[in-house]
Structures are given as structure tokens and as C-alpha cells.
Write a structure and sequence with these properties.
With about 180 residues, this protein is mostly helical. Helix content is about 75%, strand content about 0%.
Length: about 180
């Protein structure tokens, strides 16, 4: 039984990992080498949002993440319920790996360890699938953030703006994986 659960759980996990590696990793590496001269804090302030904690990065990858997050917050301000649910789900995603480890540890005392491990991987795969099905709202947030970025003229060069939007579109894959 535990082999079937583990095999079925690994299929979406490997698929999402490959998608994240294919679409996000290369763009992030290129974006980290592209300095835009505007910090995340300045970008968020120009888009009319609070500065946030991570505000010193100036590379295109960090600004792309910020544009996606700002778009999500702007959609939430406009009353989009899916954006609000996606933001609240991001908090649970941060604690999910630690919670699964604790549950799997204590489940080892109650049932067989391999079954407990496969159940934890199954819950992790289910949560990853739930996050993957919500990528549409993330793409809508990128479009809203790109619209706000273009209207605010927060970046100095048009090439910087294009690179940040490219990184923002690719950063959607970063939200699916819980780590």
C-alpha cells in the first residue's frame, strides 16, 4: 500500500519540480545578474503599497517577485477573493514542511514508518497540486502588477521593465513548491 501511495505522490512532485526548474531557475539566474537600480522597497512604494521587509535587492529577479506580490495585493484590494485565498494559502505553505515532519515523526509510533513517510509525501503532493491549480490567479496578478509597473514608470529603462516582467511571469512557478 505504501508503495502505491508513494509512487502516485511522486508523479506530481516530480512534474512540478521539473516545471519549476525549466521555467523559473534559468530566468532567475539571468535576472539576478541584471541590476535595475531600483530597490524592491522603492518599487513597492511607487506602486502604492507598504515597503515590506525585503527591500534592498535591486536585481530583476527580486523585482519580478515583488511585481507578482504587488499584483496579488492590488487584486486583493480590488476585492478579488481568489487573490485573498492565495495570499492566505502562502502562509500555510511556509509552515507545511515542518508540520508534515512533525506529523510523520509521531505517526511512526502509531503505524509503520514507511506508511507514515508515504502519507506525509502524499499530503505534500496534494498540497502541491492545490497550489499548482491556483497558478491562474498568479498569472492574473502578474498582469495586474505589470500594468501598475508600466503606469507608474518605476524603472528607469524600458529594458529593465521588460526583464522584470519576464522574471515576474516566471516567478509564478516559484509559488507552487513549498520551499
Amino acid at each position: 500500500m505504501w508503495k502505491i501511495i508513494l509512487l502516485l505522490s511522486l508523479i506530481p512532485l516530480v512534474g512540478v519540480w521539473l516545471g519549476r526548474h525549466w521555467f523559473w531557475t534559468g530566468v532567475r539566474m539571468e535576472g539576478m545578474r541584471h541590476d535595475c537600480g531600483t530597490s524592491v522597497r522603492e518599487l513597492r512604494e511607487r506602486l502604492g503599497l507598504p515597503a515590506g521587509r525585503r527591500g534592498t535587492e535591486t536585481d530583476a529577479a527580486a523585482l519580478g517577485n515583488a511585481v507578482r506580490e504587488c499584483g496579488l495585493l492590488l487584486l486583493e484590494k480590488e476585492g478579488n477573493r481568489l487573490a485573498k485565498a492565495r495570499i492566505k494559502g502562502a502562509y500555510l505553505t511556509k509552515v507545511m514542511p515542518a508540520l508534515l515532519c512533525v506529523i510523520a515523526f509521531f505517526a511512526c509510533f502509531r503505524m509503520r514508518p514507511l506508511l507514515a513517510f508515504s502519507a506525509a509525501v502524499g499530503v505534500f503532493a496534494l498540497w502541491t497540486l492545490v497550489r499548482a491549480t491556483g497558478m491562474a490567479i498568479e498569472y492574473r496578478a502578474v498582469a495586474r502588477g505589470a500594468e501598475a509597473l508600466k503606469s507608474s514608470r518605476a524603472l528607469k529603462r524600458l529594458a529593465d521593465e521588460d526583464e522584470v516582467i519576464r522574471c515576474a511571469k516566471a516567478s509564478v512557478w516559484n509559488t507552487v513548491w513549498p520551499f
